[in-house]
Amino acid sequence: MFCTQCGKRIDDPRARFCPECGAELPQTAVSVPQADIPAGNYAPGTAYAPQSSAYAPQSTLHTPRSSPYAPQNNAGIPQNAAYAPQKTDKGGFFKGIVGKLKGMSKTAKIIAAACAAVVVLGIVGLVALSGGGEVTDNRTDAELEQLFTFELGSDGYIVTGYIGDESDVVIPAKYKDRPVVKVGESAFEDRKWVISVHIPGSVTTIGKAAFGYCERLESISLPDSLTNIGRAAFVDCDSLSSIVIPEGVTDIGERMFYSCNRLKSVTIPDSVIGIGERAFSRCQSLNSITIPDSVRYIGGSAFEGSEYTVTVTASHEPYYYDYTADKNVTWIVE
After folding, report:
1. Mind listing the pLDDT tens digit for each residue in 160-178?
2. Cα 96 versus chain centre, distance
């Protein structure tokens, strides 16, 4: 007989479900029990499974030990049966699983569900965020190589590229038992599917344009270990709304946040001594910013933009002369 859903030929007259797609089969194929038919004498028009057949359909997982299809082992599964379902583009894998579940006992279903939960939790547990904000990363080097490219530097490894498809990215702290110390130049540039990035405490440097043009990047955690951020590191990160620059960073480089249109909040630490040209230019949602006393240099067009006005609060009056009204900057001296 043939499956009415996928057209698969089925030689087992007792099969209840199609081994290909899992669909339930009509129970009209057999009119005479096999036990009543002499060897070599088959009734015309009736499909029978030969006794010597090595093929075992999916439903033999639940066939009694007296089944003629194949020898039984202690688990009641044919020893020569190819019973693992194959994934197809027709959804046969999942339908086959559903078909099996229908024939399982309640206890078997509970065991199957528990096994599935263990697998899922194991995958999720590879990377976990603790209550203190620290990340526990149990990924192997082989798994990391499916997501990142690395280059060995003098102090440790550099992440030179992101080749994964995950939207929430956790950069590893270690690779091949050595620390990951830098996110390299353009490592994540133009990865438009990335939404969030966690950078570990081992990283001290973010290279030039490392996250440039990540249009969907909404959040990024910068570790306290960070001391150097390259120019244009976050250029055109259009979805980034806030960022905290950690203590230890001394320079906000040229075009670092250029054209981050949704950036509303920036925290600049007392360690910063310079703000480069166009660092916050065309950040159209940035209405105010506080410059700490430590800053001694600000590029002349650091806050330049044509469609917004930014109010800058700082304690060094001479900086005012670099920010005239035509640059849409209001300067407040504390």
Report:
1. 999 999 999 999 999 999 9
2. 28
Q: How remote is the C-alpha of 252 from its chain's centroid?
A: 30
174-175 and 219-221 as β-strands: parallel, antiparallel, unpaired?
unpaired
Q: Which residues touch 289 (CB under 8 Å, ≥6 apart)?
A: 266, 268, 280, 303, 310, 311, 312, 313
Closest CA to 182 of 162, 213, 153, 146: 153
Considering only CA atoms, give the Rg of the chain: 32
Rounded CA-CA distance 184/108 in Å is 51
CATH number of 135-333: 3.80.10.10
Residue 313 tokens, joined: 């609060």
pTM check: above 0.70: no
pLDDT, tens digit (0-9, with 9 covering 90-100), for 226-281: 999 999 999 999 999 999 999 999 999 999 999 999 999 999 999 999 999 999 99
Phi/psi at 116 (nearest 5 deg)? -60, -40
Distance of alpha carbon 77 from alpha carbon 288, whole angstroms: 71
Q: Which residues of the chain are in CATH 3.80.10.10 domains?
A: 135-333
